[in-house]
Amino acid sequence: MSCCCCIQKYIKYVKNLISITACGDYCCLSTRADELTNQYVLVLCNSIGTPLDSKYIGKSPTSIHMYARTVQLYWHTP
Predict the structure, then answer these.
(1) Quick check: is 2 in a domain?
(2) Can you spell out the DSSP letters for 11-69?
(3) What's the DSSP call for residue 71?
């Protein structure tokens, strides 16, 4: 007897990963763009890790929350 559903794994290497959050079939990765600039990148990916959209921001996110239709970012302001 064979199983009708299989568990599949996908590996995605992400340089300078800060955080990851997910909701449903999507996830949002937060990374530092590079060491020299104060830029951070948010990458929206599907369930197999394919990037769907990305945004550059100028502040380091301290918390990211993902919902069905929105991604909320929080950061510390001195």
Answers:
(1) no
(2) ----TTEEEEEEETTEEEEEEE--SSS--EEEEEE-TT--EEEEEEESS--SEEEE-SS
(3) E
Q: How far is CA 30 from the centre of its chain?
A: 5
Reading the chain (78 residues) residue by residue, the pLDDT tens digits are: 555 667 777 777 888 999 999 999 999 999 999 878 889 999 999 988 899 999 999 988 889 999 988 999 998 877
Flag whether 3 is in a domain. no
DSSP 73: E
The predicted model scores a pTM of 0.79
Please provide the size of the chain in residues: 78
Domain range for 59 is 17-74
